[in-house]
């Protein structure tokens, strides 16, 4: 059996070829155009995302740099504050030493003047006792017993005095 060509078969083949041509013309080009547009859109979004990613990396690097600078600045401020505190401490200690020295000198001067005043009072007291003893001696007879009695009485009236 040989293949017989039936006219309907020819018409169906012809219709099928027209349909393929029509589909290629009507649907294939727009479908390919849509796929191409989609591919371009995806590529541009990928490039945009890569650009944003690069910007984020740059921004992160700048922030990290700013943080490092801020830490350095904070360390510098802390060192300056510690140095200033140390200088202030030294200054306060020096002023305190000067004040102690001044107070000590003033106390030594006060002690010396009080000592001189006490010595002067003792001398005055001794002079008064000597004068009184001399009066009594002149008033009384100068016998040996009287002299000893006056010396003992004089010695009792003199308080103990320690002079450095």
Write the layout of secondary structure elements.
Layout: H1 7-139, H2 144-157
Helix pairs in contact: 1-2
How many helices does DSSP assign?
A: 2
Query: For this entry, what is the oligomeric state of its chains?
Result: single chain
Number of domains: 1
* Distance N to C terminus: 161 Å
Radius of gyration: 62 Å
Whole-number mean pLDDT: 85
Q: Which stretches are low in confidence, meaning pLDDT under 50 for 5 or more residues running?
A: none
Helix and strand pattern: HH
Overall 3D form: rod-shaped
Structural class: mainly alpha
Sheet of most strands: none
User: How much helical structure, as a percent, in the residues?
Assistant: over 70%
Relative strand content: under 5%
How many extended strands? 0
Comma- or semicolon-separated keywords:
single chain
Give a written overview of the molecule:
The protein has helices at 7-139, 144-157. 90% of the residues lie in helices and 0% in strands. By secondary structure, it is mostly helical. It contains 2 helices and no strands. α1 packs antiparallel against α2. The longest helix has 133 residues, at 7-139. The model has no long low-confidence stretch (mean pLDDT 85). It has one domain (40-157).
What's a quick, concise take on this entry?
The protein is mainly alpha-helical.
């Amino acid at each position: 059996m040989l293949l017989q060509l039936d006219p309907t078969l020819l018409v169906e083949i012809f219709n099928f070829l027209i349909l393929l041509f029509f589909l290629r013309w009507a649907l294939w080009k727009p479908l390919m155009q849509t796929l191409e547009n989609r591919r371009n859109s995806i590529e541009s979004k990928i490039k945009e995302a890569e650009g944003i990613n690069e910007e984020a990396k740059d921004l992160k690097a700048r922030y990290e740099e700013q943080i490092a600078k801020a830490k350095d600045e904070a360390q510098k401020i802390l060192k300056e504050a510690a140095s200033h505190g140390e200088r202030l401490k030294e200054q306060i200690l020096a002023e305190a030493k000067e004040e102690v020295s001044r107070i000590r000198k003033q106390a030594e001067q006060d002690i010396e003047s009080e000592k001189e005043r006490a010595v002067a009072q003792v001398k005055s007291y001794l002079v008064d006792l000597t004068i009184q003893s001399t009066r009594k001696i002149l008033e009384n007879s100068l016998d040996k017993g009287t002299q000893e009695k006056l010396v003992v009485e004089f010695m009792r009236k003199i308080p103990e005095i320690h002079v450095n």
